[in-house]
Amino acid sequence: MLRIYDSLTRETRAFEPLIPGEVGIYVCGQTVYDAPHLGHARKDLGFDVVVRWLEASGYRVTYVRNLTDIDDKIIARAGELGEPIAQFTQRMIDKTNADYRALHLRAPDHEPRATAYVGEMIELASALESEAVAYHQGDLFYAVRRFDGYGKLSGRSLDDMRAGERIEVDARKRDPMDFVLWKVGKADEPEDAIWPSPWGAGRPGWHLECSAMARALLGPTIDIHGGGPDLRFPHHENEIAQSEAANHVPLARWWMHVGQLDIGGDKMSKSLGNFTTLEAAIARFGGDVVRFYFVRTHYRSPVNFSEAGLTDAAGGLERLHNAMRAVPGDGAPLDWDESHAARFRAAMDEDFNAPAAMAVLFELVGEVNRSASPELARQLIELAGILGIGLPDAVADPEAAAIQALVDARDLARRAKDFTESDRIRAELEAQGIVLDDTPGGAKWRRGRVGPI
User: Fold this and answer.
1) Per-residue pLDDT, 136
2) How far apart, in Å, do the first and last CA atoms of the chain sit?
3) Is the Cβ–Cβ distance between 313 and 292 less than 8 Å?
4) pTM for this entry
5) Distance of CA 322 to CAs 135, 373, 375, 409, Å?
6) Are 259 and 142 in contact (CB under 8 A)?
7) Could you give the CA distance from residue 269 to residue 276 in angstroms, rounded to a whole number?
8) How many H helices and E strands in the chain?
9) By CB neighbour count within 10 A (0-12 exposed, 13-18 middle, 19+ buried), where does 333 fall?
10) How many CB atoms are located within 10 Å of the residue 73 CB?
11) Other CB atoms closer than 10 Å to residue 272's CB: what's the count?
């Protein structure tokens, strides 16, 4: 049975969705004021593995990952470039989607944009005002002390938060920890950043956006709510306060947070200027390698980014691909009672333990290389595919057809006992970094390491 760690209760427990056989999952996506970096990839690849395993386990999954396409940074950036906001954010969204396709991310079932749900946000904010947890003082604020459960996700009391946080003083707030639900626009802000509302023309607060979109698409209680570790407070804490005060039911049955991506001991982020763009990493190492680099780490574990780590991942992925190329599978359906499949499933059922599942894959690599068993090769290919790790297609490996033609020609020469020609072809292949393994079913080829990436 699948067990998932819950960030709110801080325990791992058996997963039971609200509706048997169906799972609703909401993951907080990007604020699209720039192209994505590796920190975004780390978070979304973590949840890609989660969604893939839920589907492999037979659940019907509705996966929602939002886009924040309006906020102060977006307005400022579009203004600097002289672009309409919608045009600028569309460019950033297109760029993100292109990079994510290179990582083989499963597309979400819904990718709501904040600007398309402003009506739902106003409706939710009005409900909070009716519940007397919101007050209008210039902007519309949420009164955190009116919600008894505030702080339950982060595990801190309001007094501790006030003592430990640097809070910008705002005389309009009843409490420094109160946050904005609706921000009234300024006179110099562009028209495409302003919407009418009962509290004055303006735009929604960031926290309000996710609460409204999650409710609109998945209902008042969802099975899994997830995001990056930095969202646990204040974003997810504020979502809980908003949603539960308005809906009077828990917002999520499970809270999931991926591990932080660090570089040089600090969180990788645009604000610190220490980020590597996803585009640059893909250009240098390839999308398959970037995916493998993150997938082989448990989703809750922190990752300290290094190029050496990506180079090591490239070598591991190459070993996996070589074994997958070497022996064709037998075409039988995957049987979860098979030893390797059963251990793979046990690993993934224990809070999506991808490292343990990956260890099973590399056991299979060794056994396929030793035995050339089509049955084991099929298990390797199908289990790796569940993690989104497959063989590169012809575009990714344009030399594959030519290499196979040389291998076939060498097999013909060997059968004709033309060993001079056979040796010549082998030498030609070796010069290209191709290693041949002679098996009873003919020669199988794989790429050997010919130097650093």
Assistant:
1) 97
2) 41
3) yes
4) 0.84
5) 62, 14, 16, 20
6) no
7) 9
8) 15, 15
9) exposed
10) 15
11) 11
Given pLDDT bands bounded at 50, 70 and 90, which one contains residue 149?
very high
Q: Tell me the C-alpha distance between 184 and 41, whole Å.
A: 33
Q: Please, is 90 exposed, middle or buried when counting C-beta atoms within 10 Å of its C-beta (0-12, 13-18, 19+)?
A: middle
- Alpha-carbon span 16 to 155, nearest angstrom: 24
What would the pLDDT profile of 358-407 be if each residue is shown by its tens digit? Answer: 999 999 999 999 999 999 999 999 999 999 998 775 334 556 667 878 88
**Tokens representing residue 22 in the block:** 């169906």
- Give the pLDDT confidence score for residue 434 in this predicted structure: 79
Query: Which pair of tokens denotes residue 126?
Result: 């009005």
Q: Where are the beta strands (DSSP E) in 270-390?
A: 303-304
Q: Are 172 and 139 in contact (CB under 8 A)?
A: yes
Structure tokens at 345: 């499933």
Return the residue matching tokens 């005389």.
Answer: 171
What is d(CA 446, CA 324) in angstroms, rounded to the nearest whole number? 9
DSSP 234: I
Which residues does 446 contact at the CB level (< 8 Å), separation at least 6?
321, 322, 323, 325, 326, 434, 435, 437
The residues near 400 (Cβ < 8 Å, ≥ 6 apart) are: 394
Gap between the Cα atoms of 250 and 237, Å rounded = 12
Please report, to the nearest 10 degrees, the dihedral formed by the alpha carbons of residues 415, 417, 418, 423 taken in order. Answer: 80
Joined together, the tokens standing for residue 167 give: 């809070």
Q: Above 60 in pLDDT, residue 178?
A: yes
Q: Vertex 178, ends 176 and 180: CA angle to 5°?
A: 125
CB 349 within 8 A of CB 356: no
- Beta strands 222-227 and 252-257 are parallel
Q: Specify whether the CB–CB gap between 434 and 446 falls below 8 A.
A: yes
Tell me the torsion sign for CA atoms 13, 18, 24, 28. Answer: negative
Rounded CA-CA distance 331/349 in Å is 25
* Contact call for residues 219 and 248 (beta carbons, < 8 A): no
CA distance 309 to 5: 27
The answer to whether 116 touches 109, Cβ cutoff 8 Å, is: no
Dihedral over alpha carbons 416, 419, 422, 428 (to 10 degrees):
-160
Residue 452: its pLDDT value, please? Answer: 30
The string of DSSP codes covering 235-287 is: IIHHHHHHHHHHHSS-SEEEEEEPPPEEETTEE--TTTT---BHHHHHHHH-H
Residue 350 per-residue DSSP state: B
CA dist 35 and 211 (Å) reads 25
Determine the distance from the C-alpha atom of residue 305 to the mean position of all C-alpha atoms in its chain, rounded to a whole number: 16
